[in-house]
Design a protein that fits this description.
Elements lengths: L1 H8 L21 E5 L8 E5 L5 E2 L13 E2 L2 E2 L11 E8 L7 E3 L8 E3 L1 E2 L2 E2 L4 E2 L8 E4 L24 E4 L10 E14 L2 E10 L11 H7 L3 H11 L10 E2 L6 E2 H19 L24 H9 L17 E2 L4
Parallel strand pairs: 11-18, 13-15
Antiparallel strand pairs: 1-2, 2-3, 4-5, 6-12, 6-14, 7-8, 9-10, 12-13, 14-15, 14-16, 14-17
Length: 330
């Protein structure tokens, strides 16, 4: 496994853009390829590893880094005692954007696509004073919040998705980037009766990353950010006519140690699912690199999945929904 992780960390594939879009460097050895039309229900963002093989961001990208080094070089800004706290994060939604992009858990190779609501593309509303998402938002690969398991802390079952991550660094990241993050804490969102954990993390290569080691550092160095996070998550569905979201622990952010326990549990649920030891429902477990999984496929089979989605020459303009502001009593 260590040799595999070194291979995946070596170099970086380029973003293979449809219709002549310029290539973009991705981190942690992964590149992306756009298929379908941006701003349409057909849009998909597929992932490639350093060998150029299509992979699943849900199942094939490792959850955890088991080394302090990347390409033989100590990871930037990581303290010696922090290397056990380095995880991969898949960026789905860059900060300040509205399109509700997510890993397509029910499709082969789980590309990123835009979520639908009532048959239409879903956009998260602007709730004054915030424009779109207030962090880089994404997921931890190889985790799964099992909808059949009742969480002992929240007394609610999981939401059937990978664990969500709110990355609080200073950089606006790009959709499809795979970055290394330090876990700082966690919040228990209760979303329509389901447990929907939100990890608070920071890009290990952020200029300020060396200052952050636990949730109290967020309170110290980014005052107001956790309060804004709680408020954002409480209200973001209100413009859709839904009630305010609720939280476990009365909205208290739990620390890194607590967060790591939740992550480890979700990783075990994912492993059970990928080894066909539990009910997976509609989740698509097709993978290229977990060789002992019954859902393993060859790189050639993976390519055929991707090539069934057409390329596009056009991109749509941004949605009018992204320009609307909502002013709520808070």
């Amino acid at each position: 496994m260590r040799a595999l992780l070194r291979l995946l960390s070596a170099g970086s594939g380029g973003r293979v853009g449809a219709a002549g879009r310029p290539p973009r460097r991705a981190m942690a050895g992964y590149g992306t390829e756009e298929r379908g039309q941006r701003g349409s229900q057909d849009y998909r963002l597929f992932f490639k590893n350093v060998a150029g093989h299509y992979v699943s961001p849900f199942h094939d990208i490792p959850l955890k880094l088991d080394s302090k080094e990347e390409n033989g070089i100590p990871t930037k800004k990581a303290r010696n005692d922090d290397h056990k706290n380095l995880f991969n994060m898949v960026v789905e939604i860059p900060r300040w954007t509205n399109a509700k992009m997510e890993i397509a858990t029910e499709e082969p190779l789980n590309p990123i696509k835009q979520d639908l609501k009532n048959g239409k593309l879903r956009y998260t509303p602007n709730i004054f004073p915030h424009k779109g998402y207030i962090w880089n938002y994404g997921a931890l690969p190889q985790t799964w919040e099992d909808p059949h398991q009742r969480d002992k802390n929240t007394d609610c079952c999981g939401d059937n998705d990978p664990i969500d991550v709110c990355e609080i660094g200073s950089k606006v990241l790009s959709r499809g980037e795979v970055i290394h993050v330090k876990i700082l804490g966690i919040l228990a969102l209760i979303d329509e009766g389901e447990t929907d954990w939100k990890i608070i993390a920071i890009n290990v290569n952020d200029p300020e990353a060396e200052k952050f080691h636990d949730i109290d550092d967020v309170k110290r160095f980014k005052p107001g950010y956790l309060e804004a996070t709680l408020n954002w998550l409480r209200l973001y569905k209100v413009p859709e006519g839904k009630p305010e979201n609720k939280f476990g622990f009365d909205g208290e952010f739990k620390n890194k140690a607590f967060a790591l326990e939740v992550i480890n549990s979700a990783h075990e649920y994912w492993k059970a699912m990928l080894m066909k030891k539990c009910e997976k429902g509609a989740i698509n477990c097709t993978n290229v690199q977990v060789c002992d999984s019954p859902f393993h496929c060859t790189p050639e089979e993976a390519r055929s999945f991707v090539e069934s989605v057409p390329l596009s020459l056009m991109s749509k303009e941004s949605s009018e929904e992204e320009q609307v502001w909502h002013f709520l009593h808070q």
